[in-house]
Structures are given as C-alpha cells and as structure tokens.
Design a protein that fits this description.
heterodimer, A: 0% strand, B: mainly alpha, two-stranded antiparallel ribbon, 2 strands, proton-transporting ATP synthase activity, rotational mechanism (chain B), membrane (chain B), ATP_synth_F0_suB (chain B), mitochondrion inner membrane (chain B), ATP_synth_Bsub_B/MI25 (chain B)
C-alpha cells in the first residue's frame, strides 16, 4: 500500500527516510503514535485470557534499561 | 424529526458482539524477547543466530565497560533469581486462581444472558398462546349472539303477554259493564212492573181477592180435615 499507511516493520530499509518524512511529528501526532504503540503492545501481550509473565516482564526490562541509560554518566565514574 | 448534521451509521464498524479475547499472548522466549525477533533472524542466521548476537553484545558491553559491574549487578542478580524462582514455583497456582475468578465473572454474565433468553422464550410461548386464543373468537361471539337473541325473545314475549293481559282487562270491563247494565235494567223493570201491578190493584179487587182467599182456605181446611 501507500508508504504513509504501512507499519514500521513493513517498511524497507531504503524507504526509511521517506517513511519518516510522512510521519506526523506534531505533539498530537507523537501522542497518537505513542498511544497506538501502547495499544498494540497491550492487546498483544497483556489483554489476553491466559497471559504469562511476559507482559509486564518486558515492561520492567525496558524500564531497567532506560534507567541504566539515564544513570550511565553517574555509574561510569 | 431528527436534525442530524452528520450522516449516521456510515461505517461498517460493529461494536457488538465483541470478538473474544485471544487465548494466549504473543510468544515470548525467556520471558523477555518476543518470538518475532528469532523469526526475523532465522532466514539469515539460522537457529543460533540470536544467541550469538546476544552473547556478542553482552561481551562487547562488558569489555567496553558500557555495562559496569558493581554492587548493583549483584543485587540485580539476586533479585532476578528470587523472581524467577517465585514465578516458576507459584506461577501455575496464581494462573489457576486468576482463571477461576475469570470463570466466575463469565459464568455470572452467561447466567444473566440465559435468564434473559429464558424469559423471552416464555414470553414468546405466552404470546403464541394468546394468538391461539384469538382463534376462538368466533365461538365467543356466537355464544354472545345467542345470549342476545334469547334476551330479545324473552323481552318480546313478556311484552306480548302484557299486551294480551291489558286487552283482556279492557274487554272484561266492557263485558262487566254490559252485564251490569242489563241487570240494572232487569231489576228496574221488575220493580216498575211490581209497582204498577200493586198500584193497579184497587181496593175493590183487594176485598174480593181476600174473600176468595178465605173461601179457598176454608175449603182447603175442610179437605184437610177430611184427609186427617
């Protein structure tokens, strides 16, 4: 389909700049993108009948990595 | 009248009934890395590709001190081991408990739905019964018509009887009047005749008749004495 309506995983590497150009970088657009990403993640891993530890463990791992990245300056002293 | 400024019901979106939730979430290996990553690398690197990638990255971070080992590493290792032990030991119990809760919720909702369906079905039954009853209307109306005909007949006969009685009374009155008149005429005539007869008896005639009666009586007494 058209470039602007494809998801990120379906975009080929050479088309990445063009795809980024079609993105909506206003605050509403970014917020909408974050909302969509969260909804996709939620529907795939958390909002199921028999979920497992995978749903929140990935969130916690991401949080760990993020906080390590933020504190790297302080840790590497 | 609905003043709509936008057209209604244009999309095919249908909110009910909702599609059921998926049974299991997306596949995740070791609880951290989604299966899609492994599938993504499989065509190029085979099965061991992601593991080699992981090991290489880990050694790189360690050697370049991008990931420093300090007290926090030890703490993280202990916490992780405790968490993994807990999940492995109590995971199934918690899952069963949560499933039971879910089951109860679903059962309650289902019970409500079944109740509603049953109520509607009984309503349908009763409706059908009412429709069957409607078919008996003709009998009902026939009975009512018979009733009314009988009432009319009774009323008519009553009035007929009343008319007959009244007419008979009037005729009887006329008859009684005639009888009375005739009787009065008769009595009056008798009296008048008697009066005139009595008036016509002159004294002379009265004396003669009395003497004749005495003679007759004497003769009679003589014959009576002779008889005795």
């Amino acid at each position: 389909g058209p470039l602007s309506e494809r998801r990120l995983m379906d975009v080929r590497l050479g088309e990445l700049p063009a795809w980024l150009a079609t993105c909506n970088f206003s605050p509403q657009g970014l917020l909408g993108g974050v909302q969509k990403a969260w909804n996709n993640y939620y529907d795939k891993y958390i909002n199921v009948k028999r979920g497992g530890p995978a749903g929140i463990s990935m969130l916690l791992a991401g949080y760990c990595l993020l906080s390590y990245g933020w504190n790297y300056q302080h840790i590497s002293k | 009248v609905l003043h709509a400024t936008r057209p209604l019901h244009t999309t095919q979106q249908c909110l009910a009934p909702l599609p059921p939730l998926p049974e299991k979430g997306g596949e995740v290996r070791y609880g951290l890395i989604p299966e899609e990553f492994f599938q993504f690398l499989y065509p190029k690197t085979g099965v061991t590709g992601p593991y080699m990638l992981g090991t290489g990255l880990l050694l790189y971070f360690l050697s370049k001190e991008i990931y420093v080992i300090n007290h926090e590493t030890v703490a993280a290792a202990c916490i992780l081991s405790v968490i993994i032990y807990g999940v492995k030991k109590f995971g199934s119990n918690v899952a069963a408990f949560a499933d039971k809760l879910n089951e109860e919720k679903v059962a309650k909702a289902l019970a409500v739905k079944n109740e509603a369906i049953k109520d509607l079905e009984t309503a349908i039954e009763q409706e059908k019964k009412e429709q069957w009853r409607v078919e008996g209307r003709s009998y009902l109306f026939d009975a009512k018509r018979n009733n009314i005909a009988m009432l009319l007949e009774t009323n008519y006969r009553e009035r007929l009887l009343m008319v007959y009685n009244e007419v008979k009374k009037r005729l009887d009155y006329q008859v009684a009047m005639q009888n009375l008149k005739r009787q009065k005429e008769q009595d009056h005539m008798i009296q008048w005749v008697e009066k005139n007869v009595i008036q016509s008896i002159t004294p002379q005639q009265q004396k003669e008749s009395i003497a004749k009666c005495i003679l007759d009586l004497k003769a009679l007494s003589k014959s009576a004495q002779a008889a005795v």
